[in-house]
Amino acid sequence: MNATSMTVAETIQWDRPVRGRVAMFGLIAAEAAIFSIFVVAYLFYIGKSLTGPMPKDVLSVPIFYTICLLSSSLTIHLAVSALRRKGVRGFAVWWFATIALGIAFLYGTATEWHRLIYNDGLTISTNLFGTTYYSLVGLHGFHVVVGLIALSIVMALTLLGNVRAEHAERVDVLSLYWHFVDAVWVVVFTVVYVIGR
Amino acid sequence: MKRSTLQKALLIASSMVSHAFAEPMAFASPTNIFAPVSTPAKSIFGLSMFVLAVTAAIFVVVFTLLAYSVVKFRKRADDDGREPPQVYGSNQVEIAWTVIPVLVVLTLLVATARVIADVQNAARPDNAIEVTAIGHQFWWEFRYPALGVATANELHVPVSDGNHPTPTFIKLLSADTDHSFWVPRLAGKTDLIPNHPNSMWIDPHETGVYLGQCAQYCGTQHAKMLLSIYVQSREDFERWIREQREPAVVADTVSEGRRVFETTACINCHSVAGTMATGRFGPDLTHLMSRETIAAGAALNTPENLRLWIRNPDAIKPGSLMPAMQLNDRDLDALTAYLETLR
Amino acid sequence: MSSDSIALPRAEAASRPLVDALHGWVTTVDHKRLGILYILYALIFLVIGGIEAGIMRIQLMHAHNDFVSPQVFNRMFTMHGTTMIFFVAMPLVFGFANYLIPLMIGARDMAFPRLNAFSFWLTAFGGFLLYFSLVGANGLYGAGNAPDVGWFAYAPLTSRTFSVGHSTDFWTLGLLVSGFGSIGTAINILTTILCMRCPGMSLGKMPLLAWLNLVMSGMVILAISPLTAAQAMLLVDRYLGGHFFDTQAGGSAVVWMHFFWIFGHPEVYVLAIPAFAFASEIIPVFSRKAIFGYPVMVAATICIGFIGMSVWAHHMFTVGMSSSANTFFVLSTMAIAVPTGIKIFNWLATMWGGKIEFKTPMLFCVAFLFQFLVAGLTGIMLGAAPFDWQLSNSYFVVAHFHYVIVGGILFTIFGAFYYWFPKMSGKMCNETLGKLHFWLFFIGFHLTFDFMHIPGMLGMPRRIYTYEPGRGWDVWNLIVTIGVFFQALGTVIFVTNLLWSYFKGKAAGSDPWDAWTLEWSTLSPPPAYNFASIPVVKSRRPLWDLKHPNDPDWKYE
């Protein structure tokens, strides 16, 4: 309920922000605070592992999968724009592309972790690097998974014909979450693969 | 009437407080932070007096305003029922009571910063005594690396003369969890944190025994991790060092007890210099009898207590990490007799 | 605002089976009912937390007492602190916020009613989970597996090595779950205030309670999250072999302290700022004057919010930070005294020139002013780091923070109970019992917490289950314990008053205090839809404008 028109006293112009958007910014702020703590821990513990594989020995920069994830921000933006212009089909296509790019990113994380665990012997309990790396990248990956679940639900609803142009605002609010997840990846990428190596 | 009950209550409260303050004996305490005998504690004392004076002045001013307004602006019985003049604010007043507190804060900050620097960044003279304190659950390990001495729970330091100071610098480590070294009359407390070495210093100006205890919750028996600092004259301190450096006394009369000691699990945790016992988990026992208490101050060092401690530590300090040594009475007697010779 | 002319259908008066009524409460999404649920939940835990305190005080009455074992005592102080902060103070703050904010801003409910309910039940479940630890494993004798690591759970005491069994996990998981509830409620409050104010109520015209809860919500969002993160890291250490706080593997115990206190210090402002909000509503009404300096009060609160995020390491002055780091935190800690002091002065100025009526809500708020002044001053003492090197981790600190939380926050919460009980229930509280509650509690509070400063200054550390005779601590501990009985008696009178008044109190009407904010314009208790029609306001005190049509506020603001 965000009606700005009142039945009483039309002399007052009464504009207030949209509830869903404000709440999403609140959620993003809370999540940003959580991620900040994991980032601080990662930065603090760089170079402090007593044993085990070091970042530069085992990490390889995931350029391709990063491009996938960051492109998904573009595709979701295109999806929302399409829906605003009442193009439900265009929306569905770009929305699907977003999901596909997100899944590709997760696939990349999964293969990287598989290699790290089975080839390089790096697990969360190996050393400080392992603990902080899997925690930070894992926390981000978890948020990607949650985002993909939400996006998939919307995908299903779209295919069932329940998503129309009037839902553009709500979909835009959801896309804010997705943009946040991508922004976090920019920070995580910088901290883990650039600064930490 | 409400006015007199409020005033009466305040009077009762303040007379209780002043009664207590009137008798100095009520505040007699071996761990009184306002009875410093060492430079760090004295610096803190000076700062604390200044801070107390400033806060007391603020209290008097604001409390007076509060008490005055509560009395003067109460609704009278013969009130005419009209609302008083509505005052919404005043910029001048707001500025005044912003600027003055800012000045007070800056003054306090400058005074505080100076003492922080004095205590934390004090130079270490060459003749300083160096001690390493290692916190354990629930006892204190003290080592004098340059002097080759290892002891527990009771720290000996030389008195420091104001003209030729001989401070003691203590490096603070921990073998397990967090602890804190607090002997109020000598210095503020500093924590012992594993993997995070800290450092503090004391330079007591008067001989005597100064008490303290662990001040960071470290587990079940945090309450009984007591400290005693023996501040001695230079000669007494050096004699103590010499005695502590001696290897353990070897008395033939207690060979049975020594055998029990060396063949039971005792040597896994304890050291006795000159023997095969080199354990570091528990206190060094080489000069056990030179200490006045056992179990980090939980009991006096008497033969009965020692025997009880070995047989059933939970009777003295439940939850300590000393296990009950399952010994029969004969072995227990012999062992106690042996330990009694370790002067 | 002619809500008195609405004939309310008496459907609620028809008797319904108990199950129906309970079902209504359990499934409610109405902010008023959820507010009351939060408050009742908190009251139950207030009594439980008080019993835990009583057990500790009896044990500490004299040296070498053996009322409880060290293991039980250590569980008591851990549970007492954790309960009081997370399952008494936070729910009280959220409960009153939930109840009052929509009414005071002219809305029909919170922005997200279902999220509201979900957040309440998360908080409630967190508390049950924490207390389940008492009956888990060993059962009640020996106090089960209740956590015994202190409410701030320092590493490495919380590692698997030093904390065997699951007691620490009950602490971690209970708070993790209720933390999500807190973040949900904070987002809800933030959104409600920003998006649902009635027409004419710009941000500069909303009641101070709304402003202060807005700042509080922002702080919850930024401060609870670090605790959530740190607890997740602790779980990684305990269950996945992680090394975040594993000092044997190069991890740092100090990092836990930083993360905890980045949460822990703003948390006390999360509790204090709504307490300021209650005082800011009650003091003007009982002084018969508008709050003095509304814009400055808002600005000061926002300053407190910001500065409060930068003072955390004053809890760590003894851990061996550099002298520059220590000095920085002295600066920020002292700085926060400025906006806080400004608020005290503004409350005093509100009373100045007024016509003060000492009904029970005002008694509690005047005591709050006195006690919060003292608490702030002992806070300044603790902020002078070298002085803190003596006083930290001693009973002086325990006295200081209880002075803030009990003497400051709980007193205003008592005031809020007496002030808004008529609105919530439609009945007035018994004024005689209220005054009796006040005086008993006031005497007990001062006996306990004034004298508690002294053993701290005489070297008594905190969290000790017993102490040596001959340290000079005995007589003070005895006096401290005696005060507990007065406070307990006062609390019994309080609960009795609430119950008695609910059933037998005088009818309150919509506006028993002749107050000025929107909640007093509707029925007591308000109907489910709050207002017959959404109000339109022109000033900060819409009811003053109605009652004084020749002298409305909007001419002067």
Task: Summarize the structure in words.
The complex is a heterotrimer of chains A (197), B (343) and C (557). Chain A is an all-alpha fold and 197 residues long. Chain A is 73% helix and 0% strand. Chain B has 343 residues and is of the alpha+beta class. In chain B, helix 2 packs antiparallel against helix 3 and helix 5 (255-263) crosses helix 8. Chain C is mostly helical. Classes of the chains: A mainly alpha (197), B alpha+beta (343), C mainly alpha (557). At the B-C interface, helix 1, helix 2, helix 3 and strand 9 of B face helix 3, helix 7, helix 8, helix 9 and helix 10 of C.
Keywords:
heterotrimer; A: 197 residues; mainly alpha; 6 helices; C: 557 residues; globular
What structural class should be given to the helix and strand makeup of chain C? mainly alpha
Molecular shape of chain B: elongated
Summarize the helix and strand pattern of chain B as letters: HHHEEEEEEEEEEHHHEEHH
State Rg of chain C.
24 Å
What summary fits the major beta sheet of chain B? Answer: 5 strands, mixed
The helix count of chain B comes to: 8
Low-pLDDT runs of chain C: none
Q: What shape does the CA trace of chain C take?
A: globular
Looking at how many chains there are and whether they match, the oligomeric state comes to heterotrimer
| Mean pLDDT, all residues of chain C | 95
Query: How many beta-strand segments of chain B?
Result: 12
How many beta-strand elements of chain C? Answer: 0
Through-space gap between termini of chain B: 72 Å
Q: How much strand content do the residues of chain B show?
A: 15-25%
What layout of secondary structure does this protein have?
The complex is a heterotrimer of chains A (197), B (343) and C (557).
Chain A: H1 19-44, H2 55-58, H3 63-84, H4 88-118, H5 128-159, H6 168-195
Helix pairs in contact in A: 1-5, 1-6, 3-4, 3-6, 4-5, 5-6
Chain B: H1 2-22, H2 39-72, H3 91-120, E1 129-136, E2 139-144, E3 149-152, E4 154-158, E5 168-174, E6 179-182, E7 190-192, E8 198-202, E9 208-214, E10 226-232, H4 234-245, H5 255-263, H6 266-269, E11 293-294, E12 299-300, H7 303-311, H8 329-339
Helix pairs in contact in B: 2-3, 5-8, 7-8
Chain C: H1 18-26, H2 31-59, H3 70-104, H4 113-132, H5 167-195, H6 208-239, H7 253-287, H8 294-308, H9 323-335, H10 337-351, H11 360-383, H12 385-391, H13 395-425, H14 431-451, H15 453-457, H16 474-504, H17 542-547
Helix pairs in contact in C: 2-3, 2-4, 2-16, 3-4, 3-5, 3-7, 3-13, 4-5, 5-6, 6-7, 6-8, 7-8, 7-11, 7-13, 8-10, 10-11, 11-13, 11-14, 13-14, 14-16
